[in-house]
Amino acid sequence: MRTQSLRGWMDVLQREGTLKTVSRDVSLEFELAALGKKADGKHTLLFNKVGKGNMPVITGIAGSRASFAKAVGVPVEELVAAFMQAQANPRDCVMVEKSAAPVKEEITLDVDLTKLPIPIHHEKDGGPYLTAAVLISKDPKTGARNLSIHRLHVLGPKKLGILILPRHLHHFFRAAEDEGKPLEIALAIGLDPILLLASQAIAPLGFDEYTIASALYDSPLELVKCETVDLEVPAQAEIVLEGYLVPKAREIEGPFGEYPKYYGPASLKPVVELTAMTTRKNPIFQTIVPATMEHMLLGAIPREGGMLQIIKGAVPNARAVHLTPGGTCRYHAVVSIDKQHEGEAKNAMFAAFASSQEVKRVVVVDKDVDIFDPIDVEWAIATRCQAGRDVFIVERALGNKLDPSSDDGISDKMGIDATVPLGADPFRFERIRIPRENQIRLEDYFD
Predict the structure, then answer these.
(1) Percent of the chain whose predicted confidence (pLDDT) is above 70
(2) Hey, CA dihedral for 303, 308, 309, 310, is it positive or negative?
(3) How far apart are the C-alpha atoms of 74 and 2, rounded to whole Å?
(4) Contact 165, 401 (CB under 8 A)
């Protein structure tokens, strides 16, 4: 059910019985994260008593593909295609006045992050972290908007440390920093699943991810102007923090428990200074527990949509893509193709690697293999692949610095062709089947 606000989505979760309220006192140091991890994929948790204040905290708003599909309003099997179509057919947003924007109900220039219920998630994290804040920025040269999510380490009442990987925000900040100028940013907290998904799109430089959200909503996303920076933010957000990336400033950020289920180490990172905070009355703070399925699927589903679009450009008969949970929903991809020509599997691999520098293994399978079933995929590798013929390795390509096996982000890549050779004896590769097996219900045969 499509809704442009966290509260609208909470109503959906309430009706279906997956939203659970926790009214007892819960510590922001580890306890909230532990409960969120235990509820991962099963329940959304709303904590009413955390920290010193009275601001509620929500986590786990979409912990499964089914949850994200419900938010987008499509069957699970159509989710990636729906995202791909939205990215291919973006839709304009609409600006609203402050009076029509709930996030403008409270405005302060006296920002104090210590008054927000920001959790410490893992044992060796460097401190409290914002994990569900969508960062809005603009290219200082073109004005093109960009959305992204970053880990944000609370360093002071108005100061955050930020990890910026070599993507669009890095490009913007470097351009501003080269001129000795700050880069204006805004952080939107308390959003629905659609806008979170849109922020993670694998889109070209200059592509406005807000327009993907509008396409997924099937109605224009409502935006409102910031108070102290020249940016537009979601009018229905719970909280918006305004500020800028400080040129030439670096402070220690980290460690932080990341999606690969290891710590990203502490090091000197860029710094955000905050200039304003706007909120709803009685706002709800949102956090994402790192390395949960909510965290990993937020990265996987948009990447799958972008990857499928690029692969289809090289292999039009590509059918589906899956970034596997075992591969951290980033590093291992399975691609389904309706194979028509030899060599298509390798072309699909090349396109997959080109679509995302994070991907380090791609398995290509025939359309009869369930790419969401790891046993079926492994079976295809075991029975349709010979390593000397069907596996290739590319050494020392650009990967992801959060992969602890990489050499500061330099990573090897492996492609596996687990498709049946064309022209092979059909009977040799015919899957065994029992007639009427799918029509028979075991329960009907019990006494």
Answers:
(1) 100
(2) positive
(3) 10
(4) yes
For residue 179, what are its two tokens?
């001129």
In angstroms, the CA 311 to CA 353 distance is 10
Mean pLDDT computed over 154-175: 95
Strand partners, 250: 270
Give the Cα separation of 321 and 197 in Å (integer). 17
pTM of this structure: 0.91
Rounded Cα gap, residues 217 and 212, in angstroms: 9
Site of tokens 């807000």: 210
Structure tokens at 427: 């009977």
Residues in CB range of 422: below 8 A, 6 or more apart: 339, 341, 342
* Residue 52: pLDDT over 80: no
- Beta strand 152-156 with 94-95 is unpaired
Nearest to 85 by CA among 74, 95, 71, 100: 74
Distance CA 30, CA 37 (A): 10
Q: With contact defined as beta carbons under 8 Å apart, do 361 and 335 qualify?
A: no
Q: pLDDT (tens digit, 9 = 90+) per residue, 409-432?
A: 899 999 999 999 998 898 999 898
d(CA 234, CA 219): 14
Helix, strand and coil percent figures for the chain, each rounded to 5: 30, 30, 40
102 close to 233: Cβ distance less than 8 angstroms: no
**Prior bond of 426 cis (ω within 30°):** no
Radius of gyration of the chain (CA): 23
> What sign results for the dihedral spanned by CA atoms 360, 310, 367, 390?
negative
Helices (H), 179-335: 193-198, 209-217, 293-314
Convert 378-402 to b/e letters by CB count within 10 Å (16 or more is b): ebbbeebbeeeebeeeeeeeebbbb
Contact status, residue 259 vs residue 296, Cβ threshold 8 Å: yes
Widest Cα–Cα separation across the chain: 80
382 Cβ neighbours under 8 A, 6+ residues apart: none
d(CA 330, CA 104): 36
184-215: pLDDT as tens digits: 999 999 999 999 999 999 888 889 999 999 99
The whole-angstrom separation of Cα 273 and Cα 111 is: 10
Helix (H, G, I), strand (E, B) or coil at 119: coil
